[in-house]
């Protein structure tokens, strides 16, 4: 199947050909026909699967082909009100969606507005008041501008929530519900999420009407193009092993995951002492700093970046060679999201996990979630101390005491 098989506007097909986009991805193949047919959609797709184009192309097509077209709305004395609204959880992701819209439409003339916090409100007000056809926004800043009457949403026909699971993780539920109250009841709504768990399903039922449910991947599955390696190593030696791997194997384009912002900063400081050129990437950094870090990483000035799960949702890099887990995430689905950053579009990628004894209980849960065993290995010179045992947490200890009590009660009942 090719993009030419979709009934898209000729200008969009010409632009796709110019971009040398010929074959749609799985999510695009499944979602585009349903969206063009006017259905609400609830779709599961991870970053890097082409999901942005999956909702952007039909939206651009509809705006170009509806009776009062975008071209007509650009006539003098016509104040254009937005017809499309796309919400993203982070500024970085909103920027990427906005850039993709501009790239996909080419010279079609559809006006897109980009709204997010951390920059001048007045500039964004002026942008909206000049008239836009599509708003790409983060929820908080858009609500602020609506309260200031910078724009209205009463003519929105197409509403998209991108990364819905991360929206809920970041506490945007109330903001989303507040924005929904401002939208017309007659509209098409599209919700895209990396995972379709019970929480996302329950939330979507409040505003989706008989949606087409699309899962472009097995939610518990990792890509076959990703080689997964787990090194058993003592926690104090993790940084040294990572530096050794990067220097000896000459790694480039490395995305390193850390659980906390504080851990990310500490790791960057340690690795810089070993002459590794890298930077942290998390929410405590200013918008301008994060943009510069991402630009330097993409250009090759930085060999690696150390990110938290939340911040990494805003990172979209076409070719990423290595993903490193300094420790396993507490949520098993986050492991799938993390390593899904590499091995895209058929390219080979490597996912490295540095496993200390503390994380062994998480590995058991992960293997159950993935329904497969993950091979573990030692790296020469960094072998773990086998005398160490996993620490007993309060929860584990409590469970063990309960089990002992049950066994004692059973033994006593048998004696009776």
Automatic annotation (TrEMBL):
Q: Enumerate the spans annotated as DEAD-box RNA helicase Q domain.
A: 1-29
Keywords associated with the record: ATP-binding, Helicase, Hydrolase, Nucleotide-binding
Q: Which GO terms describe its cellular component?
A: cytosol
Q: Where are the transmembrane segments?
A: none
Q: Locate the Helicase C-terminal domain: which residues?
A: 240-387
What are the Low complexity biased-composition ranges?
Answer: 401-416
Per the Swiss-Prot or TrEMBL record, what residue ranges does the short sequence motif Q motif cover? 1-29
Q: Boundaries of each Helicase ATP-binding domain copy?
A: 32-214
Molecular function (GO) terms listed? ATP binding; hydrolase activity; nucleic acid binding; RNA helicase activity
InterPro entries per record: DEAD/DEAH_box_helicase_dom (IPR011545), DEAD/DEAH_RhlB (IPR044742), DEAD_box_RNA_helicase (IPR050079), Helicase_ATP-bd (IPR014001), Helicase_C-like (IPR001650), P-loop_NTPase (IPR027417), RNA-helicase_DEAD-box_CS (IPR000629), RNA_helicase_DEAD_Q_motif (IPR014014)
Superkingdom to which the source organism belongs? Bacteria
Instruction: Give the span(s) annotated as Disordered.
Output: 394-416
Question: Which family does the record claim for this protein?
Answer: Belongs to the DEAD box helicase family.
Q: What is this protein called?
A: DEAD/DEAH box helicase
Q: Which organism is it from?
A: Shewanella gaetbuli
């Amino acid at each position: 199947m090719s993009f030419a098989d979709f009934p898209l506007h000729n200008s969009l097909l010409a632009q796709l050909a110019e971009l040398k986009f010929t074959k749609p991805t799985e999510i695009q193949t499944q979602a585009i026909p349903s969206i063009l047919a006017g259905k609400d959609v609830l779709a599961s797709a991870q970053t890097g699967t082409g999901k942005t184009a999956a909702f952007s192309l039909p939206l651009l097509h509809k705006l170009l082909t509806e009776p009062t077209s975008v071209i007509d709305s650009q006539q003098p004395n016509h104040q254009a009100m937005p017809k499309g609204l796309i919400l993203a959880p982070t500024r970085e992701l909103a920027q990427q969606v906005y850039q993709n819209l501009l790239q996909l439409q080419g010279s079609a003339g559809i006006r897109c507005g980009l709204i997010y916090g951390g920059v001048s409100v007045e500039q964004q007000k002026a942008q909206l008041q000049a008239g836009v056809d599509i708003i790409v926004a983060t929820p908080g800043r858009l609500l602020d501008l609506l309260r200031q009457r910078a724009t209205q949403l009463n003519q929105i026909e197409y509403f998209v929530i991108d990364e819905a699971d991360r929206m809920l993780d970041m506490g945007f539920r109330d903001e989303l519900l507040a924005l929904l109250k401002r939208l017309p009841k007659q509209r098409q709504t599209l919700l895209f999420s990396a995972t379709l768990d019970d929480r996302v399903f329950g939330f979507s039922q409040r505003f989706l009407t008989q949606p087409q449910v699309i899962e472009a991947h097995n939610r518990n599955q990792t890509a076959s193009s990703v080689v997964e390696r787990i090194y058993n190593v003592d926690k104090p030696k993790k940084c040294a092993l990572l530096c050794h791997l990067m220097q000896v194997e000459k790694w480039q384009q490395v995305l390193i995951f850390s659980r906390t912002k504080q851990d990310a900063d500490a790791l960057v400081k340690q690795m810089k002492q070993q002459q590794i050129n890298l930077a942290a990437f998390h929410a405590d950094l200013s918008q301008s700093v994060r943009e510069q870090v991402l630009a330097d990483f993409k250009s090759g000035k930085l060999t690696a970046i150390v990110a938290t799960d939340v911040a990494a949702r805003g990172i979209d890099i076409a070719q990423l060679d290595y993903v490193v887990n300094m420790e396993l995430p507490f949520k098993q689905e986050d492991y799938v999201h993390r390593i899904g950053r590499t091995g895209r579009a058929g390219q080979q990628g490597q996912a490295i996990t540095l496993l200390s004894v503390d994380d062994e209980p998480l590995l058991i849960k992960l293997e159950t979630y993935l329904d497969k065993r993950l091979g573990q290995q030692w790296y020469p010179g960094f072998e773990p101390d086998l005398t160490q045992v996993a620490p007993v947490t309060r929860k584990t200890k409590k469970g063990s005491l309960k089990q002992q009590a049950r066994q004692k009660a059973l033994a006593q009942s048998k004696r009776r």
